[in-house]
Structure prediction request, 66 residues.
Amino acid sequence: MADDLRETLLAYFAIVPSACADMAASDLGLGKREVQNMLHKMDDDGDLLMRNSWYRLSERAKQYGK
Prediction:
């Protein structure tokens, strides 16, 4: 399930340039806590970059088509 959520969020951020956890959860019809936890993990892993609670794909994720 976590891998599915990661892939869903990567696809989401490939379309939506920047979003906060609330927006992503609402747009995807998912729970805010679940999305927020995964966004934090993806930030730690280098797939996303967070600034002022807004997330976007990292250049590494874009380059490697994650």
Observations:
- The CA atoms of residues 17 and 56 lie 6 Å apart.
